[in-house]
Amino acid sequence: MRIAVNTIFLQKDHLEGYGYFVQEIFCRLVKKYPEHEFIFIFDRPFDQKFIFSSNVKPIVVTPAARHAFSFKYWYDVKLPLALRSIKPDVLIQPYGFCSLTGNVPQLLVVHDLAFKHFPKFIPKHHLYYYQAFTKKFLNKAKKIVTVSKFSKNDMIQQYQIAPEKINVVFSAAKNIFQPIDHISQQSTKEKYANGREYFLFTGGIHPRKNLITLLKAFSLFKKWQHSNMKLLVAGRLAWQFDSTLEKLKTFKYRDDVVLLNYLPEEELAKITASAYAMVFPSFYEGFGVPVIEAMQCGVPVITSNTSSLPEIAGTSALYGEPDNADTIAKQMLQLYKDETSRSKLIEAGIQQAKKFNWDKTADLFWQTIMETVRN
After folding, report:
1. Band of the pLDDT at 263, cuts 50, 70, 90?
2. What is the pLDDT of residue 249?
3. pTM score, two decimals?
4. Backbone angles phi and psi of 58, in degrees to 5
5. How far apart are CA 288 and CA 158, in angstroms?
6. Burial zone of 374 (CB within 10 Å; 0-12 exposed, 13-18 middle, 19+ buried)
7. Residues 230 and 194 sit within 8 Å (Cβ to Cβ)
8. Which domains does the chain show, CATH number per domain?
9. Which of 119, 87, 83 lies closest to 98 in space, CA to CA?
10. Which has more confidence, 154 or 251?
11. Are strands 277-280 and 230-234 parallel, antiparallel or unpaired?
12. Which of 37, 214, 295, 341 is the most buried (most CB within 10 A)?
């Protein structure tokens, strides 16, 4: 069988949610099924580290598809033309977009419908594209994969998609996210937090990730507790970050906030495993990988009581309202003042994280590929 995979988000030094999802699944599948040929389709020069096995054939289809005006041309003109000579049995589309002109059966991955619920957080040209074409993409696909029951139900409600057309294939945290010894923790704290304990936020500086509310909550925590705790923010400057950075300049506790920008995953794993707690107050998530990364590292989690986050974290996290800094600050204070409760939360989180692993995810994804081909 010949399996074509859209791999345009596999970019060296720029891997994020979509890219990690594709990498973790297909680095496993290409090795597990060497009898099948995998065609990896890039839109720019690629790094050889993403060619995971000898049964992977990379091709480059230009021009780069990174903006709304280029999406239509790449997906509906250039990609179908390239597939004519390849003749794949199935095309994997992992980023929420389909080719509307091609005849190859497509398996579409949709992580969430954030644009439906928080349109103000989406760049206008991207928002137009989502609004204009998402329903067509969902109808065009032979099968759909999403990463939580929440996202599946959202698609059913928003677009009346038949439930049997959508398979839930949970995301996971990489194995590199593990507890580390006390000496390594202390070394990490010295490097990034002047030796102090710190709360950690992982995610891009983007309105949907809700960093402003977290800063307000951190301010309340510092006011109530008079602690020397720091707040580390690990993530790139994503979109509409200027206003956040300007507000941070006037923030009373700005000297205790450390912006780390994008980090290599090895460093991010150390920083996560050394944190006092993960605080992840996102407005909306299809899954919320940082929550599981922290739990897997033995770090307690405070997160939002919205979207998929209660489904993913279960009873193993503390919850606040994402638009209410007071509720988040109170959870931060509870963790700080009650070490017994914190220890119980750590153990519960470790057990919760075991429910999600990439080997299981890859197997479920393969089953959906087979269903797509049969359909």
Report:
1. confident
2. 66
3. 0.92
4. -90, 145
5. 21
6. exposed
7. yes
8. 2-172+357-374 (3.40.50.2000), 182-353 (3.40.50.2000)
9. 83
10. 154
11. unpaired
12. 295
